[in-house]
From TrEMBL:
Transmembrane segments: 6-24, 92-110
Species of the source: Vibrio japonicus
UniProt entry tagged with the keyword Transmembrane: yes
UniProt-listed SUPFAM superfamilies: TPR-like
InterPro entries, per database record: C-type_cytochrome_biogenesis, Cyt_c_biogenesis_CcmI, Ig_CycH, TPR-like_helical_dom_sf, TPR_CcmH_CycH, TPR_rpt
TPR-type repeats, residues: 167-200
Intracellular or extracellular location(s): Cell envelope
Name by which UniProt lists this protein: C-type cytochrome biogenesis protein CcmI
Length: 406
């Protein structure tokens, strides 16, 4: 607000200077001198006319007329007292009231018609941006009221006006717009964040979420491409597969939707409360396909490691299901980030290697699990692995990773 008062004071001073210049630079009033010169010229012209009229015999009392003309000239000469009276007004007496009037009118009109309170609130909201952002990103972020969300949006827009290269700010603004179902704002904000950080996984996911809400086919296709890139980069986030599953279901690509929901089940495990909800979604997709619900079989694998295994959390976890005879070619396989161990994964027909040979067709099986440290499944040297006992289809499987390829 200090800037406002300084700027307004400068404008008022400038206006006063413009007002004072004409007052102090005014030229002397020469009306009396000009009138005196005019009277003299008129007197001389009239004398010439009288001489001509006398010569023509039109005037008999020339001298009387000349005396009258002289008296008229004397009567019209400006007096000294009159000149002093005209110049007795001081410029200061005019300037000071004018300055006070300008200041009073300016601030009075602003107080009546201006937005002083709104500007003050705007500055206060901008100062509260860190606190509002922290509250939004905290686990209790849903507790933000509508007024706080509006204030946060205003503060973010203000900050982004001065810092347009802040990708985090654009991402946060896009998330707020997504929460408010403001699709245009969400897409615009996420697009700017994506332009600044095209490789950031969180930005990519946010941009894909916004594009998925668009009614434009091109936007939705771009969203699928971005989500596909995230999957290729092993970005572990349920929202990625949730978006892919929802999109596939909307496009009536039910096998793809079932596959994505199955992956989500594998990521969270049967102990998660969301597991049954995903099962219902899969059953709904199967109904849409005309399949009999409940015939699908899955294999739940509980994976743990021995104490001597040092697993890189960024390595890949490869789970493969084989026939009971231990044939090298797996019937089904899946790849996950190692993350934290122990953990449970679930494989079903969606993980089958060949469409004509389903996992559910097995009566007995064994499971192999390997930690792939170099990202190349063809090389095994130095990788840790484990293998289960042969079990019947439907039984739970436990695998302990405790061996290393030499």
């Amino acid at each position: 607000m200090t800037l406002f008062w300084v700027a307004s004071a400068v404008l008022i001073v400038f206006s006063c200077v413009l007002l004072a210049l004409p007052i102090y630079r005014q030229k002397a009033n020469n009306d009396e001198a000009l009138r005196d010169e005019l009277n003299k010229a008129f007197y001389k012209d009239r004398l010439s006319e009288l001489e001509e009229e006398t010569d023509e015999g039109l005037v008999e009392n020339q001298q009387d007329l000349i005396e009258d003309l002289k008296q008229s000239l004397l009567d019209d000469i400006p007096t000294e007292s009159k000149s002093k009276k005209d110049s007795s007004i001081s410029p200061i007496a005019v300037l000071i009231p004018s300055v006070l009037l300008i200041a009073g009118i300016s601030y009075g009109l602003y107080a009546k018609l201006g937005a002083y309170e709104d500007v003050q609130e705007w500055h206060q909201v901008s100062e509260n941006l860190p606190a509002l952002s922290k509250k939004l990103l905290s686990p209790e972020g849903a507790a933000l009221s509508d007024d706080e969300m509006r204030d946060l949006t205003l503060a973010l827009r203000t900050r982004l006006h001065y810092e347009p290269e802040d990708s985090t700010g654009w991402l946060l603004l896009g998330r707020i717009a997504l929460a408010n179902r403001d699709v245009d704002t969400a897409i615009g904000a996420m697009k700017k964040a994506y332009r600044l950080e095209p490789k950031d996984s969180d930005v990519m996911l946010g941009y894909a979420q916004a594009l998925m809400l668009s009614q434009d086919d091109v936007d939705q296709e771009n969203a699928r491409r971005i989500l596909g890139d995230l999957v290729k980069n092993d970005y572990v986030d349920l929202r990625v597969f949730s978006l892919l599953a929802f999109d596939a279901f909307e496009r009536k690509d039910y096998p793809a939707a079932i596959r994505y929901w199955g992956i989500m089940q594998q990521m969270i495990g049967p102990q998660d409360s969301r597991y049954q909800m995903l099962s219902r979604s899969i059953e709904n997709a199967q109904k849409q396909m005309g399949q009999e619900v409940g015939t699908g079989k899955s294999v739940s694998v509980a994976i743990s490691v021995s104490d001597n295994v040092k697993a890189d959390p960024n390595a890949a976890l490869i789970v493969s299901i084989h026939t009971a005879d231990g044939a090298p070619m797996p019937v089904a396989a899946a790849r996950y980030p190692v993350g934290s161990l122990p953990r449970t994964v679930v494989l079903d027909d969606g993980n089958s290697m060949l469409p004509e040979r389903k996992l559910s067709s097995l009566e007995s099986l064994l499971v192999r699990v390997r930690i792939d440290s170099d990202g190349n499944v063809a090389t095994k040297e130095g990788d840790w692995f484990g293998e289960s006992e042969v079990v019947k289809m439907g039984e739970s499987v436990q695998v302990v990773i405790d061996n290393q390829y030499q």
